[in-house]
Amino acid sequence: MGLFRRGASNRAADHAKPDADDIAVDDGVELAGADEIDAGVVDDDVALVRPGAGGPWDEHDVEGIGPRVDLGAIWLPGVAGMELRMEIDQANDQVTAVAINLGGSALQVQAFAAPRTEGIWAEIRTEIAESVTKQGGSADDLPGPFGRELLARLPVRTAEGRTGHRPARFIGYDGPRWFLRGVLTGKAAVDPEAARTLESIFADIVVIRGAAARAPRDLLALALPGQAAPDAPIVAPDLVPLERGPEITEIH
Fold first, then answer.
1. Distance CA 98, CA 222 (A)
2. Which of 22, 51, 162, 224 has most Cβ atoms within 10 angstroms of its Cβ?
3. pLDDT of residue 46
């Protein structure tokens, strides 16, 4: 279920506040040929921007794409050894998120439209925390390298039927008329050293907002490398914020 879910009607007025079951642990949609995407992204010579150095970036802040791969609304830097997976909405075959796996950790990234005059991360953090709490988890609002972030413990059910909690870090960045959200899972959710490289990737992302009018929280269209992103905004009615990948589960 999606944290940015909106129904088909009244899209401009509905800000898609999450239902109680919006945080879910589900199997991801594997994209055939994902290994080919990975080969096109890896670059041993990429010098990543460190958190606090000014990024993520707007397209007007950089001089071209540089050592990044074009994924439509996101220009993504790459590092050697990372695995890249594009997540697809099976209902419409549209790319809804990019997930990066690296060294036992994962980072899921999505970009959204935002109002011209104010950011939305503070409001989104509150909604995520409320959704996690309703499901029996917990969420702490803490300072991080990109400002305030959430350290959440998401309730999960193991294959043996036992109750556990899966740690996840929700990070966000309010740009000019766009919002970039990342979700760190696996080692990066609990180990600052394990998170360092993925945080640097997030810090060096460039967001391509475009000039078209879009409702706040519309998902900015992503695309496979070498393909054009759709012009129309994507409203993801059933977007899973956390794909099953590298993870740490506390068992109780």
1. 8
2. 22
3. 56
Closest CA to 58 of 213, 207, 211, 219: 207
Contact 130, 146 (CB under 8 A): no
* Distances, alpha carbon 126 to alpha carbons 120, 123, 174, 250, in Å: 10, 5, 15, 24
Q: What is the pLDDT of residues 91-137, one digit of tens each?
A: 888 889 999 999 999 999 999 999 988 999 999 999 999 999 999 99
What letter represents residue 158's amino acid? T
Pair 184, 107: CB distance under 8 Å: yes
- How many Å apart are CA 56 and CA 73, to the nearest integer? 13
Q: Name the one residue in this structure whose structure tokens are 């990070």.
A: 171
Q: Give first-to-last CA distance, the chain, whole Å.
A: 25
Closest CA to 105 of 85, 82, 132: 82
Q: Do the beta carbons of residue 208 and residue 72 sit within 8 Å? A: yes
pTM reported for the whole predicted model: 0.76
Best CA proximity match to 149, nearest among 114, 180, 115: 180
Altogether, the residues listed in the chain come to a count of: 252
How many other β-carbons are positioned within 10 Å of the β-carbon of residue 53? 11
